Amino acid sequence: MKNPHANKKGQITIFIIVGIILLFSSALIFYIRGQSVEGIPPGFIDEVTQVPNEARPIQVFVEQCIQQTAKEGIKQIGLHGGYVDVSDPQYTGGRVFKRGFTPTDSDVVVFTGYPFDNAPRERDIPYWWHMDSPNDCRQDCTFSDAGQPGLTKQDAGENSIEAQLETYIENNIDNCYEDFADLEDIGFTLVSKAQPQATVIVTSQDIAVRLDQELTFKKEQEITLDKFTSRIDVRLKEIYDLADAIAVAQKNSRFLELAAMDLITINTEYAPNITGKKLPPIGEITFDQGQYAVWTTQDVQKKIEQNVLPFINRLRVDRAANYFQYNILSQDLIDQDQMQLVADKYTVSLINVDNDTIFPHVAVDFTYLDWWPIFVDLNGDAIIKPDKIVFPILPFIAYIQYQTFYDVSFPVLVHLRDDSALKGEGFDFYYFLEGNIRNNKPYLQGNVSIPSAREVPQLVCRPQNYNAGPLNLTIKNALTQETIPGAFVSFNFGTDSCYLGTTNERGELITQLPAGIGTLTVFREGYLQIQKPYFAAIQKADNLTLELMPEFELNAQVQVLGLNYAGDGKYSPGDFGPIGVKDTAGIVLTRIDNDTYGEYTAFVSITNETRITGQDLFRIVPGTYEVEGVLLYQDTHTVKGGELGKRRKKAVIEDITLESIYHGGVTFNNETGYITFKPEDLLQAKSIVFKMLSYPLPQVVTNDLNGLPQGGLPDIAGVTNVTGATKAYKDRIQPEIIT
Fold first, then answer.
1. More confident residue, 185 or 432
2. What domains are defined for the chain?
3. Could you point out which of 185, 407, 437, 635 has its C-alpha 20 to 30 Å from the C-alpha of 235?
4. Residues 439/424, Cβ–Cβ less than 8 Å
């Protein structure tokens, strides 16, 4: 795992510490420490507090390092579902988490953090409950909660969160010490240092940490300390207990599946007519002149991903800090009256928690993001059409019966947050749950019968029906011409998507395929997907080479061109500089090339913190892009109001206080010109400097207010013309590639 201590940030300067400590008497210090020992075993802190005055700079320095290191460790644990690092056996108790091709084939979900935080790097977050059998399992399927770590050593031993945090502190405390340079600056010389041994106890209110490490320093005389302690302002027990209660509720009541089936049903059963349905009906009969609707499983999967599962975010947990009940679920769904009937199903009841237990500090959100692939099977068919068509009941009238059995598996991110933790900085905890629907019902292990064999038609994608080829396919890197192993190849034939195989270590795949005109699709992580029209002739061999365009992982930087207010609503350019300490720059790059590659979008998010720490990597491929950037001031800002108009027609505009405010950006499109990144440039690139326009924060709501100075002041309307400003300063704000 990468060492997070690139710099020693936030540590109190030792000179200030000394000055503060000497103001306190020993009795007062003991009193302050004594106020926070509730829930700690006897002797855990008592020995630590009894140190002479001359040793207190050492004590406070070490305890600040404990505080900093433990804080970093607990943040990592929150980001990784209860683990410091799921890929490191010393933190997983030797367990290996499987990372499959799709989220529902895995023990973890690969998560970038977007759009929840400014950590674009990938991280693996484990399931706390999921089906660990393959997606196509039809009998004796098993479920697992092995991804959920225990909280305390007493419950889970070395795999517990307490034990992991102890290991993290022991492994990383030296990075904070930095050879005790700060102590040397005030006259302390390190004589000897023993190995650290950390003890972590999760209390009802916070996390207590004790470090046993013999440290001997010499100033005027030798001083030896061997016990140190600190408290971490995170209510981890409350967060963990709520997270566990939610996981238990999913195991027992399957609230994810019930909500998903409600959403699927709403999007089918209550549509006004069969041809306008978003999804194939679970069961419906119509009479018409022989016309009927047809769907493909591939299309239904996309609709569920984009239009159904994102509404999972409306689930709320009973007794959590952000609980409330929805009355109307969405204006986008079809029948509002029917919505009201299922609204109560969007409350997650904590069935394993005492009725008087509440979680007043912890908010909970559920999220499905529509780019996470799900598993979908409908009647075992690739094409969904009426189950029965009878001609005729009356002349020119058909009796048409639709019946669809949905099998769906999908991941859901559970996000718990305590905004008051870490002295108002806030603490986040993430993990995943998986929903599994079979035959339109939640799949309860051992309780729901899943047929071992449905009536499945002879589909074109069955290998025994592959009568074209063989095709000798070679996949290469479009820029380096190196072959690419491990590329997934499929043939979209009509409405079917037929999986053909994966390229070998030489980047080759020899395969039969269905006969006909279709599209070869090749996918490999780290490359743009390619789609190539192809005619597969019966019993005709062919050789074909396809090239994949690679992604480049680069550092992103943002510079802003300051626009100064020149009066009368006009602005003039100033100098370039970094984004403000309270600014966030967000950039979306959408590839518009009309070529054989699929759609591609890149995201860049830069804050002052990520700019300093270097957590600013993003991925991009060569091509022409539409670029949309926004610059947000992420702090409270008040825009002044005042009187408007004259005499009797005066109106009063109130001050406006905003939590964040837009004050610039950049727009490259068909009006201002697109941005092109050439392959030869990206091959040499180390980073890309994106440039944006930064308006001054508005001071008044509008320049039409009475009593303003001549020329007015920056107002809200002044920051809205980013497109026009991009045109005006286009030559100065082009992205710059750094090699």
1. 432
2. 14-95+152-230 (no CATH), 237-442 (no CATH), 463-548 (2.60.40.1120), 552-738 (no CATH)
3. 635
4. no
